[in-house]
Each structure stands twice: as C-alpha cells, then as structure tokens.
Give the backbone structure.
Amino acid sequence: MRHRKSGRKFGRKSGPRRALERSIVQGLFTHGRIVTTLARAKEFRSPAEKLITLARRGLAARERGDRAGFLHCYRRAIAALGGNRFANGLAKTLFEEIAPQFRDRSGGYTRVVREARGRLGDNAPRAVFELVGYTPAAPEPAEEGEAAEAAAGEKDGAGDAAKE
C-alpha cells in the first residue's frame, strides 16, 4: 500500500524522474504551452510554479537593490533547470520575460486543461499544460512578392515533374 507516499513515480527511478521533470518544465518555459499526459502535467505543475515564484522573489530583490538576494534566486533557478548553458539561457528568459508577467499575481501561474482524446497507442489521458496568459505567437506574414513567388515556384515545380 502507498499510504502517505506523495508524488508519482512514472515507472522510473529517481534520476530519470528528475530528468523528466526538468524536461517538462524546460519545455513549458521555452514554448509557453506543451501537450503531455494529464498525470505529468499535474505532477510537474508545482515545480514550475515554484520556479516562477523564485524568479518573482529574485526580481523583487533586484528592485530593492539586494544584489546578493537576486543572484541567489538566479543561481537556484539555474540549478533547478539543469545547471548547464541551456538552463542559464532559460533562467534568463524566466527572470526577464515570464516572471514580470506574473508580478501582480499571487500564485496560479500555470493551467492544466484536459484534452478530449487520449494519446495514440495507449489512450493515456492528455492535457495542455500552459502558462496563464499564454497567447500563441502569430506567424509573420510574408511579403506579397515573396508569397507570390513561392506559390508560383510550387506550381511550376509540380508542372515540370508532370511533363517529364
């Protein structure tokens, strides 16, 4: 029996489970929205929110002029995100872009929305795991001349192959 045992194991030992956590949280902070299983989204919601809170505390320390407090929070975020160059860049994104969005919000930075269809293969329940206030980036419209040339090039390419 698993009485008083908190957390999910996901069929992994502790090292791969920590790597999975880092991967999910890194994906969330990189893209703003990811699709994963419902269990993973629920389990890794807490670490993601704790990192955003850490970043908010670091920003508050920087505004107070407490350089040591800011650096401590920044370095803890890097360590939690993996402690490598990618984690360093992601921590910068966390402190400069993500945390300021939630300056006036006291918790509840992420959202887990159940998807109607299960995952292909094993029908595991899927969920969208996203930052609150996430808006997908609109694709940049191509200039009219470039779009027309690309469309004409595709038509010509298909016609050439059919002629030969």
Notes: The chain has one domain: 14-135.
